[in-house]
Backbone:
């Protein structure tokens, strides 16, 4: 039980890597920086794996395994330990984060090989791993918040990595500030949690909450308020409506960063947090509904934007926003396991998509516009095949990882205890759009005739340290979902079963029974219809594929004609519904105007300072008058003294009278 | 506290002693003036650390007390520290050597006078924190003003005279009111001794009528609020900061603003608890306005130093809010925030000063892209910004979060409004950082600016270390504050009870009675936890 006792080692390794590279890396050759960076994350992964092995020997009663290292904050009744914990949910996150993170580190050694600030990049990347693992391992809300804010910081640093570019620096700032708006809600949520439960430890909170009944749909109870506030934080961090605006801009960062932070790990922190806090959410039906609605709307909404983007990374960014929406949709209907399942498979295939896109960009010498690509299939076969597999996975084609997880989500929305046909419809349409825009991406990039100048751009396949991570992720994009495969033939869904202890231990009394009812119900026409609908997500996925093929391979002129015909709609989508412009016009500019003209110039200078300076000039003017009293005449002085004394006494008496 | 100790006296007057040493040096001997001043301030810091060794964390009493007659038998030299003042003294002794080191080269004229002023301020500020006699307190309070006035007026920038006069007039105005209140208090209680007055109040031997109490509270509070730059009394601060030399700003922001919050906590609360309770809603609203307003105005500044000055208005708003939430947690948070604001904002001013040393301007648009010519300095600057915007696990987070947690116990709305300050601080600091450090170097002169020198690295690394230590090892501090914080709240309650008893005994003015004492200190969360 060596590592389980010393969970901090998993955190210390990447932190040490970050510190060493940050302090000494500048003077070191790249190979040394590589060994430190890769070495530390690889060791962290091994440590995580060993921890999981030890964890698997624990008895059920010992889970969650909590380990407290020192008291971090203490004041009055408010006490926060630096405490870490491991349960099944942690295990899934821990392995996903540390493994995908390690692959992306390796990939980066190839991708960033020709970039300046090499040591700085890896220092930030390691620091990110430290904070992400802290977030995942945290045993209380405050330590989780450390990770939560820390990953935001690293995201800021890495988006703005090429800080000489104004757009990159802007994007980094936007990301940090937008997520901080969400964190405002999260902070108040944490305050309310402490006020309600008198603790911020997950264990204590859940114990208290397990005795509480579920709140009703009719009125907002305390749990609903808490959940909605915490969810605000998730909306910011996981880029949901209406705070998603930072994520597409975040593509200004280097592509491995997009893969690691803005696809596979950090942006899923909101989903993880909601799943972690499920005992509260499960008792707050209004909050659940809000989560589900926001998730479904985001899934649909950003998929529509993805349809028309021409920047290969922007398509993937909107796709990420959309897929995160599915995860929240799952949580919102109580299918936390399905949400986490999709989180994991998404980490595989979306991480792969980004890395492959990076490989394409690398091959094209920095070009990101898909209109300038085409026909790359033969020239970069590894990249093509792996990206194609990832696309099949995200489109939900049966047999691939995304199929299993997305199917579970839509099934839960369709027939689970919180089923909701409208949201299901949004989800299904979103799935069709997803399939369409992803295959559009593949067809535009890899098929057809080259649209770039072949004399200028020398397309070349990426080096081994980039292609090997691609292949490993491609493998996982196929088989990573097979935990659930036995269910298709009437067996057990191993993934859900593994997570079950987490999600059932604080479930509402009687909830399991309720969950079983639909399955056991007699075959009415309604249930038959439901069964008939189960296959729909797969069908729309294939439809999306075919439609993309029709549009971009069979009749490449169609998209242009369609765009001409529906010019308004096309412009609306192309400009992302003008949301950035609306925010700028309604919030940013008014606030700046108000701060400059009202608060600063009018209030601070116009009123307060003017009053002070006015007093001063009155004093000076009256001083000028009073000076005339200094006549040098002793008798007049004496008279003034007496008058003054009398006046002062009267004043004092008067004042005291008032006082008494 | 039982053992007679002269440690506090030594700590208070050691800087003054080194002033005497400086007087013997020739005014032209800049090298030795600097060295002696630095050595003296470092020795002072080392000596002040001895306080930690003898300090009993669990005791709410004043420790290291010393009490002698001073002027007749009326005014005493009575000093002592408790958990509230302990770290403020240490903050002062910590920041003074830093301030001296940062003036190493930027002060070239009348070097001797400058360092003398700095050391006199140190004595005066420590004196304020350790005085337990109101008259003594007032003497030290006034003593802080004069050297600071000269520091701004003589070694400041272009509009230094205006700023210095504004600074002195503003604070003098408050001081006079406070002096009247102190004399009045003496008239009532027959002593200047804080402990004796507290005893009289708690025993009910001295009782204020509600309106008297309110006036007295107001007189003290106004003096302190001006120092704190509570909205709308903040307009002296941006000018004073912008015009002051770097060391002046560091001391001003780092310690002097806290004289005000310290005074509120030490005098306004325990002596006039009823008035404090009655005024709390109004003051809290002003504090919250200060948090939001200071942040918004900071956002749109063109002058980097002015921007940092406005952030103080915002951060000190948190402190005042924490104090007037009257909970153990929020007051500890307020004290913590005082310390960490001293470190973070002091460090911000140090960074701004280093830029000024190179370019002699505070205009943000004169900078831009500095991360390229000076990566080390800008990395530190970013780190300091992060500490100032309360990123966990750095120092700013602890204080701010404790204030929020404590305030939230009794006042959800206050805490929620204040929490929005966290969003705003990210906006103004990151935007400023971007305009200064990121992007292309836009001004030709900036391309060849030298990165941080060894001296500057020592300064910045010291501040960074303090930021990390205060972020990770917060119990080291809070454990020593708790007993005294609780003591303040208990005193408030006892005084309130005493005055209510007296009022009932008089049988009169029942109508004028304020509401019964609100459950403040001792109320733990236990009572509020989950109602099944």
Residues:
């Amino acid at each position: 039980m060596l590592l389980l006792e010393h969970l901090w080692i998993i955190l210390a390794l990447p932190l040490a890597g970050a510190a060493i590279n940050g302090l000494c890396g500048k003077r070191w050759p790249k190979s040394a920086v590589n060994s430190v960076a890769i070495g530390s994350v690889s060791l962290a992964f091994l440590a995580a794996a060993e921890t999981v092995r030890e964890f698997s020997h624990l008895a059920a009663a010992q889970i969650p395994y909590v380990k407290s290292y020192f008291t971090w904050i203490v004041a009055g009744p408010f006490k926060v330990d630096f405490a870490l914990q491991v349960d099944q949910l942690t295990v899934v996150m821990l392995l996903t984060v540390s493994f995908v993170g390690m692959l992306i580190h390796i990939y980066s050694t190839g991708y960033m090989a020709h970039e300046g600030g090499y040591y700085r990049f890896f220092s930030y990347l390691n620091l990110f791993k430290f904070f992400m693992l802290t977030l995942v391992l945290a045993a209380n809300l405050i330590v989780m918040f450390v990770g939560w804010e820390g990953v935001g910081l690293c995201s800021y640093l890495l988006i703005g990595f090429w800080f000489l570019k104004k757009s990159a620096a802007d994007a980094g700032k936007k990301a940090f500030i937008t997520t901080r708006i969400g964190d405002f809600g999260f902070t108040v949520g944490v305050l309310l949690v402490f006020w309600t439960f008198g603790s911020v430890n997950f264990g204590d909170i859940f114990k208290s909450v397990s005795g509480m009944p579920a709140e009703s749909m009719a009125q907002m109870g305390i749990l609903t308020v808490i959940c909605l506030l915490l969810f605000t934080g998730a909306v910011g961090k996981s880029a949901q409506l209406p705070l998603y605006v930072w994520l597409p801009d975040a593509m200004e960062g280097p592509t491995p960063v997009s893969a690691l932070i803005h696809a596979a790990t950090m942006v899923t922190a909101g989903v993880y947090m909601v799943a972690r806090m499920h005992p509260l959410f499960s008792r707050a039906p209004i909050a659940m509904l809000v989560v589900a609605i926001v998730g479904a709307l985001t899934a649909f909404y950003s998929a529509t934007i993805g349809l028309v983007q021409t920047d290969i990374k922007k398509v993937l960014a909107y796709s990420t926003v959309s897929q995160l929406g599915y995860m929240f949709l799952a949580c919102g209907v109580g299918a936390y396991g399905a949400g986490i399942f999709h989180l994991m498979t998404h980490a595989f295939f979306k991480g792969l998509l980004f890395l492959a896109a990076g490989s394409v960009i690398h091959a094209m010498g920095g070009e990101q516009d898909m209109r300038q690509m085409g026909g790359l299939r033969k020239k970069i076969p590894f990249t093509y095949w792996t990206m194609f597999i990832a696309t099949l996975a995200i489109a939900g084609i049966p047999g691939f990882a995304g199929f299993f997880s997305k199917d579970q989500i839509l099934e839960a929305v369709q027939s689970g205890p919180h089923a909701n046909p409208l949201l299901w419809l949004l989800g299904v349409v979103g799935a069709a759009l997803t399939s369409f825009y992803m295959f559009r991406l593949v067809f535009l990039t890899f098929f057809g005739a080259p649209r770039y100048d072949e004399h200028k751009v020398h397309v070349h396949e990426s080096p081994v340290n980039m292609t090997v991570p691609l292949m490993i992720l491609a493998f996982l994009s196929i088989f990573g979902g097979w935990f659930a495969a036995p269910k298709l033939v009437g067996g057990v869904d191993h993934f859900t079963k593994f997570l079950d202890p987490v999600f059932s231990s604080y479930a509402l009394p009687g909830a399991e029974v309720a969950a079983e009812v639909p399955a056991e119900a007699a075959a009415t026409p309604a249930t038959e219809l439901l069964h008939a609908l189960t296959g729909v997500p797969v069908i729309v996925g294939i439809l999306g594929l075919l439609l993309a093929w029709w549009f971009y391979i069979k009749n490449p002129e169609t998209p242009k004609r369609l765009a001409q015909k529906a010019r308004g709609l096309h412009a609306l989508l192309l400009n992302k519904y003008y949301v950035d412009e609306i925010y700028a016009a309604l919030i940013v500019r008014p606030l700046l105007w108000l701060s400059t003209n009202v608060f600063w110039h009018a209030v601070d200078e116009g009123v307060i300072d003017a009053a002070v300076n006015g007093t001063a000039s009155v004093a000076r003017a009256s001083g000028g008058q009073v000076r005339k009293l200094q006549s040098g005449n002793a008798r007049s002085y004496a008279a003034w003294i007496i008058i003054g004394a009398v006046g002062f006494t009267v004043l004092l008496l008067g004042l005291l009278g008032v006082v008494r | 506290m039982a053992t007679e100790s002269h440690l506090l006296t030594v700590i208070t007057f050691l800087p003054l002693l080194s002033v005497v040493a400086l007087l013997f040096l020739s005014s032209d001997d800049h090298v030795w003036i600097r060295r002696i001043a630095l050595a003296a301030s470092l020795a002072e810091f080392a000596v002040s650390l001895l306080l930690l060794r003898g300090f009993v964390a669990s005791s709410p009493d004043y420790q290291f007390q010393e009490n002698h007659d001073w002027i007749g038998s009326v005014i005493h030299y009575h000093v002592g520290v408790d958990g509230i003042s302990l770290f403020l003294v240490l903050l002062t002794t910590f920041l003074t050597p830093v301030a001296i080191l940062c003036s190493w080269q930027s002060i070239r004229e009348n070097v001797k006078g400058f360092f003398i002023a700095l050391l006199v301020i140190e004595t005066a500020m420590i004196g304020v924190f350790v005085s337990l006699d109101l008259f003594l307190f007032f003497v030290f309070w006034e003593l802080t003003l004069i050297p600071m006035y000269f520091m701004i007026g003589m070694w400041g920038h272009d509009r230094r005279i205006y700023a210095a006069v504004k600074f002195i007039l503003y604070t003098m105005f408050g001081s006079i009111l406070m002096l009247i209140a102190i004399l009045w208090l003496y008239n009532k209680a027959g002593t200047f001794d804080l402990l004796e007055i507290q005893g009289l109040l708690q025993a009910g031997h001295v009782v204020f009528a509600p309106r008297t109490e309110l006036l007295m509270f107001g007189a003290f509070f106004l003096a302190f609020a001006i120092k704190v730059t509570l909205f709308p009394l903040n307009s002296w601060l941006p000018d004073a900061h912008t015009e002051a030399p770097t060391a002046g700003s560091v001391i001003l922001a780092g310690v002097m603003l806290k004289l005000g919050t310290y005074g509120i906590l030490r005098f306004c609360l325990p002596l006039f608890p009823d008035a404090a309770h009655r005024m709390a809603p109004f003051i809290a609203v002003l504090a919250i306005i200060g948090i939001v307003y200071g942040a918004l105005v900071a956002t749109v500044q063109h002058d980097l130093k002015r921007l940092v000055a406005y952030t103080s208005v915002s951060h000190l708003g948190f402190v005042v809010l924490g104090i007037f939430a009257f909970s153990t947690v929020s007051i500890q948070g307020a004290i913590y925030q005082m310390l960490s604001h001293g470190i973070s904002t002091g460090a911000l001013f140090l960074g701004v000063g280093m830029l000024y040393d190179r370019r002699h301007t505070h205009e943000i648009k004169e900078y831009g892209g500095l991360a390229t010519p000076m990566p080390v300095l800008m990395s530190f600057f970013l780190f300091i910004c992060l500490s100032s915007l309360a990123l966990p696990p750095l120092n700013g987070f602890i204080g701010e979060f404790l204030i929020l947690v404590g305030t939230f116990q009794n006042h959800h709305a206050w805490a929620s409004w204040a929490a929005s300050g966290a969003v705003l601080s990210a906006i103004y600091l990151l935007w400023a950082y971007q305009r200064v450090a990121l992007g292309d170097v836009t001004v030709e002169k900036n391309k060849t600016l030298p990165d941080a020198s060894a001296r500057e690295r020592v300064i910045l690394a010291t501040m960074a270390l303090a930021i990390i230590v205060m972020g990770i090892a917060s119990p080291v501090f809070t454990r020593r504050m708790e007993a005294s914080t609780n003591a303040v709240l208990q005193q408030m309650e006892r005084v309130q009870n005493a005055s209510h008893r007296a009022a009932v005994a008089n049988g009169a003015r029942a109508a004028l009675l304020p509401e019964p004492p609100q459950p403040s200190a001792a109320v733990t969360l236990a009572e509020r936890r989950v109602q099944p």
